[in-house]
Structures are given as structure tokens and as C-alpha cells.
Amino acid sequence: MIIGASASRRTMRLSPEVSRILYLRNLPYKISAEELYDIFGKYGSVRQIRKGNGPRTNGTAFVVYDDIYDAKNALDHLSGFNVAGRYLVVLYYNPTRLNKRSNLDKEQQELDRVKAALNMNQ
């Protein structure tokens, strides 16, 4: 009995960091959502693409796949892919990593406040 490719990949164990949501960095500022759909749609059904448009988010985007294996395949093939002279950085979206940074900033602010209250500033 021959197992199909899709059945065999479903039994493959994925690392806990793998997600259906990919975070993209180093995008050309003028790339359109349609161009991103063309690039990332080759690796599976894309549910949504959100492109950053503010000063801090320009050049970034989120790509949400319907299937986690399609997201993994896209990351494997498109990380480092050259688009308009820029090499894509493709990562799995990890909200805990973003929250950790936010929590560190809050903890530093609290520490600075306590130091100021106790006149411990150097």
C-alpha cells in the first residue's frame, strides 16, 4: 500500500514553534498585498495577509494559511527569497516572544520608577 504525500506529511511531527501564521520582515515597501498573495499562494491556501503600513510596521506583514503544513512549506522555501532586491525574513508568528519584550519594557519602567522614588539613580 502506497501512502500519498499529503497523508505522510500529516503524520510528520511538527515542532511547537510551527504556526499557521507567518511573520514577514524586510519586504519592499511598495509591494502590494496581491503580489504577496501571488508569492505565498503557491504554497497553499492563504486565508489572510496583513501588510504593515505605519512607520514602525512598514516592510512587514503577516500571512495566515488555512493549513499549518502549508505555512511550514512556505517558510522552508521562502525564507531568504529575493523580492525586488530584498531578501525576505520569514518567521513563525510567536505572540509570547512579542509579549516578553513588552513585559521587559514594563518591568524596566517599574524598576526605574522605584529607583527614582528611593533616590537610587546613578
UniProtKB/TrEMBL annotation:
RRM domain segment(s): 20-95
Location of this chain's protein in the cell: Nucleus
Record bears the keyword RNA-binding: yes
Superkingdom of source: Eukaryota
Sample GO molecular function, one term: mRNA binding
GO cellular component: cytoplasm; nucleus
Keywords on record: mRNA processing, mRNA splicing, Nucleus, RNA-binding
Alphabetical GO biological process terms: mRNA processing; RNA splicing
Gene3D superfamilies: 3.30.70.330
Tagged with keyword Mitochondrion: no
Pfam families on file: RRM_1
Name of protein: Pre-mRNA branch site protein p14
Source organism of this protein record: Babesia divergens
Lineage per the UniProt record: Eukaryota, Sar, Alveolata, Apicomplexa, Aconoidasida
